[in-house]
Predict the 3D structure of the following.
Amino acid sequence: MKKIVTIQDISCFGKCSLTVALPIISAMGIETAVIPTAVLSTHTGSGFTGYTFHDLSGDITSISEHWKKLGLEFDAIYTGYLGSDSQIQIMSDFFDDFGKDDNFIVVDPVLGDSGKLYAGFTDKFISEMKRLCAKADYILPNMTEASFLLDIPYIENCNEDSAKEVLRRLTELGCKTPILTGVRSGELHGAAAYDSERNEFYFSYSKHIDRHLHGTGDIFASVFTGTVTLGKGLQKALDMSVKYIS
């Protein structure tokens, strides 16, 4: 049985992070281990204020040390929302400890949406996230996150030509296969990927739904990671993720 460890927060209300990653990956027939990075009363996006935040950085290190003693191994390591600069360094160390030649690392560089950073994130956090992306096999930013990672203007409706340029630049962070969500083509909405080793682009679309829904990025990343873990190709992983989101 394939095994994934996903490392992200628990937002107690809000249809995102671990509350969607754990059931989705498990339903794909993959054993899913979790490490919560923080416990929040709600997610930090628009619609909620005054949320509680409990940092679990110390627990992450303790869990990692215990797992090393047990000799646990995973087919994939997948990170989502990280709550502080120090947690990014903890994740970097985790990659060093559990990353192997025969597994892969997915970083969903959760920073913001709709052109704005999520509450509590700073320029230093963005800089640290860039370093973490360099250690990943796959990164899955939306256009907002790509704009902050690359220090470029936010593109509201990113078309295929713009997506190709953004994807090429994302490889300069050190990741060989970036995936960009929120790509538009007329009335269609989807995602694009770039395999820099083969110099090949991949696109997948579904009908655009004119609503803003929290958690779609987490769901996309979970389906994508699970599909790749099951041995499917990049195009299949994109198609599965976009179709499920739709």
Q: What stands out?
A: The longest helix spans residues 57-70. The chain has a mean pLDDT of 95. Residues 180 and 192 are 5 Å apart (CA to CA). The first strand starts at residue 3 and ends at 11.
